[in-house]
Amino acid sequence: TQLLEQSPQFLSIQEGENLTVYCNSSSVFSSLQWYRQEPGEGPVLLVTVVTGGEVKKLKRLTFQFGDARKDSSLHITAAQPGDTGLYLCAGYSYSGYSTLTFGKGTMLLVSP
Amino acid sequence: GAVVSQHPSRVICKSGTSVKIECRSLDFQATTMFWYRQFPKQSLMLMATSNEGSKATYEQGVEKDKFLINHASLTLSTLTVTSAHPEDSSFYICSARSETNGYTFGSGTRLTVV
Fold it and tell me: What are phi and psi for residue B87, nearest 5 degrees?
């Protein structure tokens, strides 16, 4: 069973602060995805990283995939209340059939 | 982009009754659909993987006779919670996978069993 450890579990910060969420595994993934989920809604895909060492930027969000494709990080610059939500990393691997493994999630609360 | 429609978004049912949740892929065909369960402030727990025209594959600990999954077409999968009890109350989410669109999630169904 492939496991994705996500940290921190909860994060409460003030508007304007920076933060980083980590996603780690002992397994190699062919790609890794980050999702954001708001209460009562399904997860919405933010980004997919495929290549080891890859860095992708989405406005104030920076995503990095580890060189060994076992870990990833999400960095948010100058967080805003609209960033509040549950952030989920999900690793994709092919093992007979394609599977998407979710981390436990990071609940982010950004206060004005 | 790809859209997955999940219906109903909320349902309240009496204990002992059955509830059906539908998951439709719009404008694309999904050979595989996934059903997840999510508890408050927690991550998604995969319940089962559903392939069109074949029996669903259930994760360990998920009762296949209680959570009936039907994937009769490339655009529709249904999850029926049979003889629902209060402990089945949860947020259920489906996801559809295609070669071109990857994974697309539905907006979820809040089930409350009273």
Answer: -70, -10
With cut-offs at 50, 70 and 90, classify the pLDDT of residue B47: very high
CB atoms within 10 A of CB A92: 18
Q: Average pLDDT of B75-98?
A: 94
CA angle B99, B105, B109 (to 5 degrees): 150
Instruction: Decide if B41 and A88 are in contact by the 8 Å CB cutoff.
Output: no
Which of B43, B49, B108 lies closest to A41 in CB terms? B108
Residue among B53, B33, B35 at smallest CA distance from B101: B33
Gap between the Cα atoms of B62 and B29, Å rounded: 26
Contacts 24+ apart (CB under 8 A), A67-70: A68/A28, A69/A28, A69/A29, A69/A30, A69/A32, A70/A24, A70/A25, A70/A26, A70/A27, A70/A28, A70/A29
What pLDDT, on a 0 to 100 scale, did the predictor assign at position A1? 56
* A60/B32 Cα distance (integer angstroms): 33
Q: Report residue A98's pLDDT band, with 50, 70 and 90 as the boundaries.
A: low
Convert B25-36 to b/e letters by CB count within 10 Å (16 or more is b).
Answer: beebebebbbbb
Q: Does B106 touch chain A (CB under 8 A)?
A: yes
